[in-house]
Amino acid sequence: MDLLNTDLATRVDTIDWRRLEDDLNQFGCATVDQLLTAGECDTLSALYAQDALYRSRVVMARHGFGRGEYKYYRYPLPEIIGTLRETVYPHLAPVANRWNALMGIDARYPADHADFINRCHAAGQTRPTPLILQYAEGDYNCLHQDLYGEHVFPIQLAILLSVPGRDFTGGEFVMTEQRPRMQSRAEVVPLAQGDAVIFAVHHRPVNGTRGVYRVNLRHGVSRLRFGHRHTAGVIFHDAT
For 43, which of 20, 122, 133, 134 is 20 to 30 Å away at the CA? Predict the structure, then answer.
């Protein structure tokens, strides 16, 4: 591991993971301030034009996903993205296992990310899912869930690479939580450049009067009012 990735791994290890788990349990999402430096964010944004780094490009409007576009990285992943995938996952796997136990879901996740990826690949999920998204004025991302196959890791992260107020306005990260027999709850997450939001992909456990039940979550991005916005998304399972 080179110096850059050693430094990034240290940042990940020094996150207050207990506080983060408390926020995930209470709200379905949690933020990490300055997970990436401005230089790391600018490096990832500048790589968007290098098509050789990506396995595919998706124009959202063609599929009814919203407006804007995104590209899935190919293997090998950029060092920053690969390091995040490998070092964040071990902190989230225990949370994911506790959630599944509470919700009566049989799936359990190994402690090491490489072991989980081997499980995905053995099931035919071999395509990398980390991605970078690009929005321009008027673009938005419809509420959705990133589910790509049988083996789905239930938590993921997104990192804002652009500077709010300078590079763009609008474009807030949004989550909705659909609760049984109740109105849906919305969560708007303000981020600065380099900040990460860690959030539930599909559902999470909530304590109710009759015990634990599942709530369904979706995430998206509100309409950009001005400028351009880049975001990196780190999904821990691979796709079919």
Answer: 20
pTM: 0.94
| Average pLDDT, integer, range 207-225 | 90
In the chain, % of residues over pLDDT 70:
98
Which tokens is 124 given?
A: 């035919």
236 neighbors 93 (Cβ within 8 angstroms): no
Per-domain residue ranges of the chain: 3-234
What span, in angstroms and rounded, lies between the C-alpha atoms of 43 and 233? 15
**CA R_g for the chain:** 17
Q: By the 8 A CB rule, do 162 and 45 touch? A: yes
Residue 10 neighbours by CB distance under 10 Å: 10
Distance, in Å, from the CA atom of 116 to the CA atom of 152, rounded to the nearest integer, reads: 10
**Percent above pLDDT 90 for the chain:** 88
Cβ burial 203-235 (10 Å sphere, 16+ → b, else e): bbbbeeeeeeebbebbbbbeebeebbbbbbbbb
Interior angle at CA 31, CA 79 and CA 20, nearest 5: 100
**CATH code of the domain occupying 3-234:** 2.60.120.620
> Is there a contact between 218 and 156 (Cβ–Cβ < 8 Å)?
no
Q: For residue 69, which of 42, 46, 49, 53 has the smallest C-alpha distance? A: 49
Residue 1 has pLDDT above 70, yes or no: no
- For the record, the structure tokens of 105 come out as 């879901």
Report the C-alpha gap between 227 and 221 in whole angstroms: 14
